[in-house]
Every structure is written in structure tokens, then in C-alpha cells.
Amino acid sequence: MEELKFRVQEYEGPLDLILQLIQKHKLDIYDIEISALLEQYMAAIDEWRENQLDIASEFLEMASHLVYIKTVMLLPRHEEEGEDPRKELTGALLEYQACQRAAALLGEKNRGVDRFVRPPEEHEADMTYTLIHRPGELLGAYFGALGRGRRHLPPPKTAFSGIVSRRVVSVASRIAFVLSKLYRRARVNFLGLFEQSDRPEMVATFMAVLELIKDKRVRATPDGKELVMLRSGPVPETTKQEG
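Structure for Segregation and condensation protein A, as requested:
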């Protein structure tokens, strides 16, 4: 059976571990005692190994870097030979510490909401309309607004003129008209019946011709150009057209 392994989740990285060791043992971050720090750092790694925890490579890399700093500091050197080998580590720790503080501050401000937002600022309202329109757009908007206003008004009287003032022509009156033409002449031109007639008269005349053909009083020639009288009969009285 494969043994269980646990990853280190207590620290986000080697810098996090070093900061906690410095705080725990009250070391000076600006004058780090490398021997004491390396001893505590390696003790933490040995503890993880005893508990069969998986150690990330970055922790081992930092351990080798601490050993290098301790070795350089043990070697005899003159003050003018170079900078303190701990300076780079101190700068990295201070930068990491500042990032931790900024993250904690943002976390406090963002608690309970989905995102971090700054407080609202007051701005003076500018009521100047700055959008530029083409003349055609303005004209279209004007006519559109004018049309919407007119829809709420009652329709003018002229809107009903085509319905109220239109003459009503009866079919019977047009039957008398057609028969009167045929009594004078035995046949008449079909299209001539519709000359000088408005639409109501044309419709009534056409219906009258259909009625006469149905009653077999007239017939149309094969070419459809003329009407021919088939049998005579009393001419119906012309009814008075209703205005």
C-alpha cells in the first residue's frame, strides 16, 4: 500500500517561513543572525521530513542560499571588499512583508462583498448636451414626436369623406340603364357602358350585366366586346340614385 504524503500548507513559501521564524524568535530583520535563522529553518525542514511531508523545492533552494550566506560571513574579509551578503535577503523579506500587509488591508476592505470598490465621489452635474446629430436625424425625431402627438387627437372630418360622401348606386338602376341602351340598338359596345362612370357606377353596371346574362336576356359576343339583346321585355323603371 502506498504511503500517504502531506504537502506543507502552513507557509506560502520560504520567505513566509523565514518571517515567522524571525517574529517567533525575535530576530532583527535589518541585522539577521544567520546562524540562528539557519538553525531554526533546518529544524523546520527536518520536522517535515520526520512527518513524511513533501517538501517543495523552493524551500530546499532557500536552505542552500542561507548556508551560502553563513559561509560567506564566516570567511575573513575586509570592510571595503563588498556589501553585506544578508542585504539581498533583507530586501526580499521587507518587500514580501509589505505585500502581506497590503493583501491583509485589501482583504479587510473586501470582506462581505464580491469586489473591492472605492468610496463614491461627488461630481458636479454637467447638463450641457454635447452629442452631435445629423440634420436628418433631428428632422426624423421631430416628425416622429409630431406623429405620436397626433395619434392622441380625434381624426379630422376629411378622414370620413371617402365613406360618408360616396354615392350608392343600385344594381336595378343600372339594369334599366343597360336595357335602355339595348332597346335603342340591338347590340351595344360592352366597354361603352362604363364610359364617364365613377367607381360605384362601374361596379353596379358590371353586376347589372351579370344579372341580365343570368336571366338570359342578353349575351356577350365571343370576343367579349359587345352585348346582344336575346329577348325583349319591359324595361324596369330607373330607380332614383341615392346620394
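The first helix runs from residue 14 to 24.
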